[in-house]
Amino acid sequence: MGFDIVVSDIHMPDMDGFKLLEHVGLEMDLPVIMMSADDGKNVVMKGVNHGACDYLIKPVRIEA
C-alpha cells in the first residue's frame, strides 16, 4: 500500500513541518500540501519555496 499525497501541519509536536517536507521530497517524491494557522507571507513562501505544492490557511474553508 502506498501514498499519493501528504497533508501536513507546519507545527507538530515531534517534528517541524518543514523538516517533514524536506524528508518527503528527498525520500518519497510525493506532492505535499502544508497547512497552518500561521498566514505570514514569509512562512507561506518558505513552504512553497521548499517544495510544497500548496499551503492552506487554517481553518480551511471549502473554497480553498
Characterise the protein shown here:
The protein has 64 residues and is α/β, with parallel strands linked by helices. It has one domain (6-57): Response regulator (Rossmann fold), CATH 3.40.50.2300. 31% of the residues lie in helices and 20% in strands. Helix 1 links the parallel strand 1 and strand 2. It is globular and about 30 Å long.
Distance between the termini: 28 Å
Sum up the overall morphology in one term.
globular
Specify the structural class. alpha/beta
CATH architecture: 3-Layer(aba) Sandwich
Fraction of helical residues: 25-40%
Quick one: CATH class?
Alpha Beta
The name of the CATH superfamily reads Response regulator
Using the CA coordinates, give the radius of gyration: 11 Å
What is the spatial order of strands in the main beta sheet? 1-2-3
- Under CATH, the topology can be stated as Rossmann fold
Entry summary:
The protein is 31% helix and 20% strand. By secondary structure, the chain is of the alpha/beta class.
